[in-house]
C-alpha cells in the first residue's frame, strides 16, 4: 500500500463521514416529542472520528434524532480499546439520555484481555440493537505459495512457529481469528502485531508476513486488482462482491464464522420502554436506503432485530474469545 493509496483511503473515509451528515448535533423538528425528557441524547462513540463505527453512528443518530424529535450529540471518547467510552456510558444515568455505539473488541474481547476494567461490559450496559457485522478475508500476497487454507495449514504444521501472520495489534479481532484457526487446527503460527490495521495490511501486501485476516472493505480493492489473494471469507455465506472466494466452512473449517460487529447500548437499568423505543427507531433507521448504501460501502452487513439478538451475539463471542485468549496466552500491549 503506497502513500497515495493510504491517503486516498483516508480521504474516502473522511468523505463518508461528512456524507453521514451533521457531524456534531442534530436539532429536533418543531413538533418535538418528549422522549423521555427534553435533554439532548448524548451518543458516545469510543473510537476516533471518521472510522467505520463513527461514520455509521452518525448516519443512524441523525435519523434517530429526527424521528424521536430530540437533539443527538455525537461525542467521541477513544482509548483503551473502546473501554473508556464504554465505562463512561456504564456510569451514566439510566434515563435514556446517554447511548453507546461500540464493537466486539470492547464488549467481548477486552474483558478477558485487559484485566479488571472500570465496568463490566456484560452487565453494566443494556443491549439495544445489533447494528451490523463485518466479515474478514484471509489474504496472502500473490507471491506466497498458498492457494488454499488447507495449503496454509499444511505449511504451518510442517514449519511450527515460522508461518507469520499480521494483525492490527495484540488482542484485536484480527489476531483472535488467526489464533482460533491455529487452536482448532493444531498449528503454531507466529503473530506479528502492528500499530493498526493499515501497516499490517501493508506488510502483508509486501510479503513480509505470510498471511492476515483483514476487514473486507480494506482488503477487497487489493483482491480485485490482484495484489492480494483471498483464500477464504469468515462470513457464513460467500460475499456477492467476491463470489469466487469460499467461506471458511467451504475451505474445511467447520463452524468458523467470525465477524466483527457494531452494537448500540444504554446504561444498565434503563427502563424497558426506553430500550424498546430506541430499538424500534434504530431498526427504522437501518431500513433506510441511504443507510444501507453507506453500510455497503463500509463493508458492513446490517442486522438489526430485537435487543436479545445483540445479547446472544455478545455472550457467544465473549465465551469464544475468553477460551482463545486463555489457550493462546494472549496478553494486551
Automatic annotation (TrEMBL):
UniProt keyword list: Signal
Signal peptide: 1-32
Keyword set includes Plastid: no
InterPro entries in the record: BUG (IPR005064), Bug_dom1 (IPR042100), TAT_signal (IPR006311)
Superkingdom field: Bacteria
Family the entry assigns: Belongs to the UPF0065 (bug) family.
PANTHER family according to UniProt: BLR1237 PROTEIN, TRICARBOXYLATE-BINDING PROTEIN
Identification of the protein by name: Tripartite tricarboxylate transporter substrate binding protein
Organism: Limnohabitans radicicola
Lineage of the species this protein comes from: Bacteria, Pseudomonadati, Pseudomonadota, Betaproteobacteria, Burkholderiales
